[in-house]
Amino acid sequence: MKLQDQIGRILEFKETPKRIISLVPSLTELLVDLGLEDCIVGITKFCISPTHLKQTKAIVGGTKNINADKIKALNPDIILCNKEENSKEIVEICEAIAPTHVSDIFTIDDNLELINQYGILFSKEKEALEMNTEINFKLTKFKEFIKNKEAKKIIYFIWKDPWMAVGNTTFINHLLQLNKFDNIYQHEERYPEVDLEKMKLNIDLDLVLLSSEPYPFKEEHILEAEKFTHKAKAILVDGEMFSWTGSRLLKAFDYFKTLH
Q1: Considering only CA atoms, which of 110, 116, 70, 63 is closest in space to residue 91?
Q2: How far apart are CA 86 and CA 152, in angstroms?
Q3: Using an 8 Å Cβ cutoff, are 12 and 70 in contact?
Q4: Does residue 237 contact residue 211 with C-beta atoms inside 8 Å?
Q5: What are phi and psi of 97, to 5 degrees?
Q6: Which domains does the chain have, with CATH numbers?
Q7: Phi-psi bin for 8: left (phi > 0), alpha (psi -120 to 50), beta?
Q8: DSSP of 52-101, one letter per residue?
Q9: Distance (Å, whole) CA 54 – CA 34
Q10: Side-chain half-sphere of 248: how many Cα atoms within 13 Å?
Q11: What sign does the CA torsion over 166, 169, 170, 174 have?
C-alpha cells in the first residue's frame, strides 16, 4: 500500500500498520473513535481523551519533546504527527525509527481527508466513511442554524503574558469564520502578539474569546480582558472544540450553537 500524507510524503506499507504511536492528542482521540484503541502502543502526556489511556498506554513524552528511546523500544509500525503540533526535528527523529505520517489541517475538508487517509491506512474504511458522513451532516445542520445569525467582530486569545491571538492560516480561524465570528486578526499570520492598549482602538469589537488551551484562561481573566475594550463581552470558550481536529468535530458543531 502506498499513501501520500498531508505534507506530500509517500509512505509505503506491506501490510496494515498494527502498532501505532500518536504524538498528537486529537489524533489519539480519532484513533479510538475509529476503533483502533487496541493498536495504540504509545501516546503523549497531553493525550487526555479518553482519560483512561494514560493508565493503559506508554507515555513517550509531550508534543514538543519526545523520548526517542522509549518510542524505539515500543517497535511501532507507524508514528502519527502533525505539522503544527510537532517540530520538523521531531518528525525527522521519528522517521528514523518507523514510517511517520504527518497531518496538516487548516480546513474541514483537510480534516475529512485525514479521516479518509486513516481509514485506508488502518483498514477502517467503513468507520471513516461513517464518521465523515456524520460530520458532513452536522456541518450542514450548523450552516442552516448560523445563516441568519448576525456576524460578530471578535478576537480569540490563546495565550497571556504576552497576550497572543489567533490569526490567519489556522484551523481555529477557519472555524471562527464558520461561526460568523469576524476575527480582527484574520489578516495576520498564525498567532500574533497583541498590545491590549491597542485593542481598545477597535471600538466595534463585540466579543473577546478566551480559550481554555493552550493557556488555561479562567473567570478572573474576563474582567482583565474587558478593561481594554469599549463594549465587548469576554467569554471563556472550550479551546478543544476550536482547535482539535479529527473526530472532535462530531461534538464541536453542537457546542458552537451554545455560543450563539
Answers
A1: 63
A2: 33
A3: no
A4: yes
A5: -100, -45
A6: 2-138 (3.40.50.1980), 152-258 (3.40.50.1980)
A7: left
A8: THHHHSEE-B-SS-B-HHHHHHT--SEEEEETTTS-HHHHHHHHTTS-EE
A9: 18
A10: 25
A11: positive
In angstroms, the CA 84 to CA 165 distance is: 16
Nearest CA among 71, 75, 73 for reference residue 91:
71
C-alpha cell at 180: 460568523
| Total residues found in the chain within this entry | 260
Write phi, then psi, for 196 (nearest 5 degrees).
-60, -30
Q: Which helix (H) or strand (E) holds 43?
A: strand 40-43
Print pLDDT tens along the chain (260 aa): 999 999 999 999 999 999 999 999 999 999 999 999 999 999 999 999 999 999 999 999 999 999 999 999 999 999 999 999 999 999 999 999 999 999 999 999 999 999 999 999 999 999 999 999 999 999 999 999 999 999 999 999 999 999 999 999 999 999 999 999 999 999 998 999 999 998 888 889 999 999 999 999 999 999 999 999 989 999 999 999 999 999 999 999 999 999 99
Block residue for cell numbers 507515555: 59
Cell numbers at 78, concatenated: 507507524
Q: What single DSSP character describes residue 237?
A: E
Cell representation of residue 231: 463594549
Neighbours of 230 (CB within 10 A): 12
d(CA 111, CA 40): 21
